[in-house]
Amino acid sequence: MEGIGGFFTVIAIIVLYFLPIIIVSTKIHREKTMIVALNFFLGWTVICWFIALYMALSREGIEQLQANQALTVEALKGSHETELKEVRRKHRAQLELVRSRASPRDDGLAQRQAELDRLKAEYEERLEALTEQRQSLQQQERQPPAAEELEPEPEPETQTAPVPEVQPAQPIQTEYQGEALYVVVPSQFERVVAETLERRLDNEDVQIADDASRRGVDIKTFQSDGDQSRPSAIVQCQLQSHDQAVEYRAVSDLLGSMSLHGAERAYLITTGSFSDDAQRMIESGTMKDRLFLIDGMTFNQWRTQSGLAPVHYLSLAG
pTM, whole model, 2 decimals? Predict the structure, then answer.
């Protein structure tokens, strides 16, 4: 019995000695390491043991830890809100960027539509003016010549036969009065030019050149009853905006193509205009009656006089 009592006494002394460590191990304490060291190494001094026990029983460490945890939670919450605000800001910036990119495109489409409407109205006005001018000239041609003021006196025995009334000549072709035709690609413009030349060139066959025999030529014409191996005329088509001008180099290249094919005539037909250098090239040289520069206005006069719709270039670029 004495042995058992002594054993329990030792156990009690050990538990009592390490009581601060046992207490601090059951809770969250900021000074846990210091309490364990103070109790383990200096607990045999009663003062240090009481200090360790007081520190273990104190709630200051728990309150401080809870305060630190609260601060950490607030900091995390603030960081989360900051990140959320940053994400929202980036999202708004991306939306603004998308809108800024989409807006110029919409504005560009609106500007091109307005430009198209303006060009359409301008061409319609020019077409109407040309039509009125043509009708005025036709009316003047239809008027019979005025009678002479002085007529010879008839002989008394001879009766003058009545002069038959001369009917005014009717125009062979009727000008086109409908809507304009809008061309988009060069191949479409080549077909339009070939259709126009078929109306204007009565004794010639009009053929669109194939890809293998083009050599700077889009259309060839041949005499109906002549040599089909040598074209009578070559045609180059230039599809461009009405405010663009064909330069001198294109005319020079066409002259080279005319010599290469052995053609008698050459036509450069465009929906735009010609530069001053290109026009002076044929006005001052010997090619005035062989090389013809047909701008957009002249070509549309050809079309309307032949009963065909005038042509306008519609650009889809952007």
Answer: 0.46
